[in-house]
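Q: Joint fold for the lines below.
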Amino acid sequence: MAGRTLYDKIWQAHIVHEEPGKPTLIFIDRHLIHEGTSPQAFAGLKSAGRKVRRPELTFAVMDHSVSTKDRLLPVLDADARGQFEALERNCAESGVHLFDMHSKNQGIVHIIGPELGITQPGQTIVCGDSHTSTHGAFGALAFGIGTSEIEHVLATQCLTQFGSKTMKVDIQGKRPRGVTAKDIILAVIGKIGIAGGNGYVFEYTGEAVRGLSMEGRMTMCNMSIEGGARAGMVAPDETTFAYMEGRPFVPRGKDFQVAVDYWKTLATEADAKYDSTLTLHSRDLAPMVTWGTNPGMVTQVSERVPDPASFKDAVDREAATRALVYMDLKPGTLIEDIPLDRVFIGSCTNSRLEDLRLAAKVVSGKHVSKSLKQALVVPGSRAVKAEAEKEGLDKIFRAAGFEWRDAGCSMCIGMNDDVLLSGERSASTSNRNFEGRQGKGSRTHLVSPMMAAAAAIEGHFVDIRKWDNVESVE
Amino acid sequence: MEPFIKHTGLVAPINRVNVDTDQMVPKQFLKLLTREGFGRVLFYDWRYLPGEKPNPDFVLNQARYKGASVCLARANFGCGSSREHAPWAILDYGFQAILAPSYADIFYNNCFKNGILPVTLTNEQIDELFARTEKNDGYTVTVDLEKQVVTDSMGLRYAFEIDPFRRDCLLRGLDDIGLSLVHESKISAFEEKNLKHPMMYDAVDVKHHSDTPHAARHN
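A: Joint structure:
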């Protein structure tokens, strides 16, 4: 019998009930919720007369609509306020632990889960948010669910799921200077397209992935969904265990050792078979910039905006044509010549301490271009913010002309006041460049934190590899 | 959930690939507390000009597609965000079935939870349906889940595949939480058996975990 993959092992360890021809009932170890997608689930539960089965396995946080400015001011947006109040009420009634907007642990749900050690290797983790794939960086099976499934987990601590196919995404060789996890995952999505991973769970392997910090692995797994895969994973290793140790919700002492021993058994076996394999080599990687209206419309910073006529497939051609109209870009324009209005460093993709350190190093001693309307740094969590301030990163950013904000989803989704105005163009470290994502009529270019930082200084994209103050990453 | 057995209705074409759920329900409408009323905002940014005036260029605003209940779509329909507001909006607008060559996973799953039938056909079949919809004013199809076939009045007949379990749940309008709770004793047994397993460690240090929320509260 062929060996088992990381995915197989976690799946099999969580089977509660299975029968032929039906989806499998699997147990969910950790359930994360936020104000945006949970109220209808609690309402449904209540109207069916059901209770939250295991409130201690669900964790709630306010992140999507929170202000990144002064949180002591009243919430003026009545709808947002209604959601915050509903979450408070639902958590209080059901016994779910809530990190509200005033908690020192508040932050984007996918930042605080790992940071607090709620996320652990080998677990099944779900959340009503597609970027739940982030948590797979720890060797967990983590994926986004809809509100009906949130209700299902609240009621049963289980989900009915069909198994997924597995794709090995192998990044060979050492990551080059100036190339980050963000650039790798954008290259992967550029290669397979945004539907390339539909039906799959990705497992990221190879020297370049092993060389990434947990932060970098989270960035890669986070954007698995942008390649169509509900989940992405990295097998846990010493980097993972070192990250875990001592975090608030991680077992301590002897229990930690028992856990590590178990986590060590999770890696994919040498003779295991994947349903598909994609291999990229680091020497072909470069800093990436999206030019279109989905994350698969991406190219290297040294390239030009493509000519739609160059696409072989008629459907791609039409999509590219439409995207360039929306983005107001002409084919053949050098990526480095694209001028920007705003720069956003934040989101569950790129707002961890490592991201902020890399960006700060780029902007240190420089100043944001006069042509820019705004440059924004939004730490992913209040803990990241506090750490960054301890290191003086806030001062570096402020001196360079960036705004330094409180933690939340912010301009990635623009559910609070942090939005682009119609027609404005951003360099953004977030995960989606869909039409209207950052505000109606917004034009988003996805990049790494270093690339965003450098673009803020110059007012247009620049090839970070040409700068000498780039963090040497290996 | 309402059962889906068979539906005949007017077809409206959304002729774009990779329609993401941000387009179906833009973020400003994610702050509501109910599942109802999202039909008005479906495809909001495409559908309306400033002041919520219907944009005459958007297909659903054309008179010939008023009252459509079958959504004809392109590949990777529903990609992006997991927001279930997207299928809520589709359903509330009046669509009961979707015909497309492929769907994004989370959206596909969410459709079944709401009694919407997402039918998967081949690219060629979808092309033909777009052609017929374009050519024939008032073009309707019948989507028959029991027989697993899409038909029109001009002899078109496309069989489609669907997972038998999902089909059964739709046909009977089953509440899948109820279905899972049938296995309550197995869930309890699983919890019992794995109580000491590392993956199941009591997260829950919560009680000992010091987090003193700020006294200030939003009003």
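Q: Anything notable?
A: Chain B touches chain A through 70 residues (CB under 8 Å). The first helix of chain B runs from residue 21 to 24.
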